[in-house]
Amino acid sequence: MSGGWNTIESDAGVFTYLVDNLGVKNVQFEEMIALDADYLNQQSPVYGVIFLFKYPVGQKKADEAVDGQYDFAASENIFFANQTIQNACATQAILSVLLNRGDLDLGDQLREFKEFTQAFPAELRGEALSNSELIRGVHNSFARSSPFIDEGTRAATEDDDLYHFIAYTPINGILYEIDGLQPSPISHGKCTEEQFPEKVIPVLQRRIERYPATEIRFNLLAMVQDLRIRAAEIGDVETVAREDEKRKMWIWENELRRHNFVGFAHEVLKRAVASKLRDGKYDEWIDEAKQKAKDRMSERKKVRGEKEDIASP
Prior knowledge:
Layout: H1 12-21, E1 27-31, H2 37-42, E2 46-54, E3 69-70, H3 89-98, H4 108-117, H5 122-130, H6 133-140, E4 163-171, E5 174-178, E6 186-190, H7 196-208, E7 219-225, H8 227-233, H9 237-257, H10 261-278, H11 282-311
Antiparallel strand pairs: 1-7, 2-4, 2-7, 3-6, 4-5, 5-6
Helix pairs in contact: 1-9, 8-9
């Protein structure tokens, strides 16, 4: 395989334009700020949800699922791929929803990928996904630019904060949890498309309850139909305009992710120093900066002293 996979953020704008760049039509993501079935139902049609959580490093795999039941037979009938490479789980979770829907326009290339891997076992599907230049290239185009390259690698320990993406989606009347690190899809019982918001929320709540009450680092994104479609159908001009503005912001934010501003800041500083040196004001500029720093420190000490006086009995 040529090239690796970079980490991407759990962000509605990132995921929306990721699937758009893969050729998928009329799909977007909405961030869920609360585990609320009514709110999720308002986004209908909901195709699935992508859940981000802290992965318990060192946890031993059990013969039985902690919640729900392994459905090994389903691996042959639905798209399920083992995760075979690091950092691919976000896109893999997204594809676990997309490639199990029969009502979405996937575009030519993703449809061909689905057909090509249809008869593959889960591990080989994972290898095919990891080696797809299209999917890897689109995925990496949304990674944050960083000037710092870590040349060393090591095995993760229990002290590391590692995060993992999984998908929940209704397939053939069953609510499935699809996690590439598990041996098969996990069934959470019968579930129609209409029941999905009500059925998935308790499953997510039980998953979160496995963690200490102090753990709040979770993120949930719903994969839904482009909200402008339904708004346009009912003549909701305000929603269409609001969604258009949101997409403009997403495009801007995604462009910022691609730029390395450390180099930009370094170049600005070099030019500023060169300008002061050229004008013979470099020492004056440094002395002025030092004095401002001293003034700020004195002001902070003064404020801190006043607070201590107020707090004294």
